[in-house]
Amino acid sequence: MQDNVFVFDHPLIQHKVSLLRDENTSTKEFRELVSEIAMLMAYEVTRDLPMKEVTIKTPVAEANVKMLAGKQLAIVPILRAGLGMVDGMVELIPNVRVGHIGLYRDPVTVEPVEYYCKLPEDIAEREVILLDPMLATGGSASAAITFLKKRGIKNIKFMCLIAAPEGISRVTTDHPDVKIFCAAKDEKLNDHSYIIPGLGDAGDRLFGTN
User: Fold this and answer.
1) Does the annotation count 105 as an active-site position?
2) Which one is catalytic: 58, 106, 109, 191?
3) How confident is the model over 170-184, as pLDDT tens digits?
4) Is 122 a catalytic residue?
5) Quick check: is 201 catalytic?
6) pLDDT tens digits, residue range 42-68?
7) Which stretch of 6-10, 86-90, 103-107 has the lowest confidence by average pLDDT?
8) Best CA proximity match to 123, nearest among 171, 196, 193, 71
9) Would you identify the CATH topology of the domain 5-207?
10) Any idea where the domains of the chain sit in the sequence?
11) 97 catalytic, yes or no?
């Protein structure tokens, strides 16, 4: 496993991912599970946030305590499936700024094309966590990271639920400075670039579409 790839083995995360994979899991349950897993993962993904010492007054006495330092965080979901991970992140980090980036694949060139991007004004000063439930071929994730870097963002992490080896290889090759966090690393991609065993199309399962 690459040094900048982290696969979570926490029992709660693994249990919820197993429920997420089940084809009988309803749309409502699927949404809830995605949000819950994102929140559990966020706890570890943010472990290295910078801290500063401040003095506060408790009801009893003054205390030197630690709080988050600097501009803190922004999260950027890749539309549309990445939206399912936002609520869990926001529940854990209520003051986090949220941007959005939308990509589609050009039918002729087969290259990812950015069709929408709305980011906080001070995004370049923040640590950014890019969100997408599935890391399959890695094409969209790599392109989104490239688009963010072009806007001056230097500190980027990528967080997904299920990753294929092909996607991990693509992102680590294109962006060796970006850490990848995933809840599960699966076997491979099939001929249609779906992750095996995977969980199907995350966007369709989140939003009840086919």
Assistant:
1) yes
2) 109
3) 999 999 999 999 999
4) no
5) yes
6) 999 999 888 999 999 999 999 999 998
7) 103-107
8) 71
9) Rossmann fold (3.40.50)
10) 5-207
11) no
